[in-house]
Specification:
This protein folds into two domains: about 90 residues, DNA polymerase, domain 1 (Orthogonal Bundle); about 140 residues, Orthogonal Bundle (hpI Integrase, Chain A), CATH 1.10.443.10. Helices cover about 50% and strands about 5% of the residues. It is built from 14 helices and three strands. It has a three-stranded antiparallel β-sheet with strand order 1-2-3. Helix 1 packs antiparallel against helix 2, helix 6 runs antiparallel to helix 8 and helix 6 packs across helix 12. The longest helix is centred in the N-terminal third of the chain and has 21 residues.
Length: about 290
């Protein structure tokens, strides 16, 4: 089983992630070997979960270990339908969008209409970075800079914690489309008064748009796109995290992108586990079709 673990670790991008994942998986592998249990079994994970709880490890440690093992199982195509859910991890955020629904919403933005360029930049930014609604409205032009070949967004999140997020070219292009309106080059915000202007504003950058305004912008687009399920600005964060997990991004990288300190929050945002196509019941096979 250690060979499979090493193959999994090779698929990760961050050295820090590799080190942490290896430690967790080795501990779990040692436990299974000691107990004579099958490594790639949800029953074994449940037994290990009970063992950790009885050992009185911290809640964050418990959640992180289960999250790492889940990530390994999903990488290997092993069903996780019967995985234990640590306390506090069973609440589910609002619905996210499918990739097709996200494309439909973006397609319905009229960039020629008044404030259309702002709407486009706002929705693209939230869908491609997973930032919170409150974080999006607080972005100033000085928060965006170019670092070599990449554009970087600096976010001040909950608890005044600072994190940096890379911006894809499509997002940068939508932000640059605001230059004619804001009269600012996002690559070189020179004057202090320009740097301190809010990117998403209805008064020239003096004050940020209200969160309710962001909600209204999104709901109008949702209606135009013919999407009937309940959607809110928070859905864009759910969608971004789910898409990143679908793209096999490291859990620790997704955690840092979202501004969290534990893996359990990432898993709460994983839309994939709710999809019928991933139901364990669809994998049951008794040798006949």
């Amino acid at each position: 089983m250690m060979i499979n673990i090493e193959k999994f670790l090779q698929s990760l991008q961050s050295d820090t992630t590799v080190k942490q994942y290896r430690s967790v998986l080795q501990l779990y592998d040692s436990y299974c070997t000691e107990k004579g249990m099958q490594f790639d079994s949800s029953d074994s994970v449940n037994e290990y979960f009970i063992y950790l709880k009885r050992s009185k490890v911290s809640t964050s440690t418990l959640k992180n270990r289960i999250a790492v093992i889940r990530s390994f199982f999903q990488w290997g195509g092993i069903p996780v339908g019967e995985f234990p859910i640590p306390k506090g991890d069973d609440s589910v955020p609002v619905d996210g969008l499918s990739d097709e629904e996200a494309r439909r919403i973006l397609a319905y933005i009229d960039e020629d209409a008044e404030h259309g360029k702002m709407h486009s930049a706002l929705i693209h930014l939230m869908l491609f970075t997973g930032i919170r609604c409150s974080e999006a409205r607080g972005i100033q032009w000085g928060s965006i800079r170019q670092d070599g070949e990449f554009h970087v967004l600096t976010i001040i999140g909950k608890g005044n914690k600072i994190r940096q997020i890379g911006l894809q070219p499509i997002v940068v292009s939508k932000l640059e489309a605001l230059k004619s309106l804001a009269r600012v080059d996002i690559r070189e915000p020179k004057a202090e008064e320009v740097s301190n202007r809010f990117v998403f504003s209805l008064d020239g950058g003096k004050t940020p748009i209200h969160q309710q305004t962001i909600r209204m912008i999104l709901l109008k687009l949702v209606k135009k796109a013919g999407i009937t399920k309940k959607i809110s600005p928070h859905s864009l964060r759910v969608t971004a995290v789910s898409n990143a997990l679908d793209a096999k991004c490291d859990l620790i990288d997704v955690m840092q992108m979202g501004g969290w300190t534990s893996f359990d929050m990432v898993l709460r945002y994983d839309r994939r586990n709710k999809l019928i196509k991933n139901s364990s019941a669809l994998r049951i096979n008794y040798g006949s079709k």
